[in-house]
Write a structure and sequence with these properties.
The chain has about 70 residues and is mainly alpha-helical. It has a domain of about 35 residues. The chain is about 90% helix and about 5% strand. Strands 1-2 form a two-stranded antiparallel ribbon. Strand 1 and strand 2 form a beta hairpin. It starts with a helix and ends with a helix.
Length: about 70
């Protein structure tokens, strides 16, 4: 009867709290990683667009010379 209420001195509530806390911690870490990736991806995209724009300008200037 006593074993049905808990496992080796841990109550079921304690185990649930620990599992939920662990899941929240994992979600928090993943959220931070996602934000960092979004910020760095935005900077890379901006630099890529600038590079493409410079290439297009160069091609248009060469076309105008012909």
């Amino acid at each position: 009867m006593f074993l049905a209420a808990g496992l080796s001195g841990f109550n079921i509530g304690d185990i649930l709290f620990t599992v939920i806390s662990f899941i929240v911690l994992i979600i928090f870490i993943l959220f931070i990683i996602l934000i960092v990736k979004l910020i760095t991806h935005g900077k890379k995209r901006k630099s890529d667009l600038t590079r493409i724009e410079e290439k297009l300008d160069t091609l248009l200037k060469e076309k105008d010379k012909l």
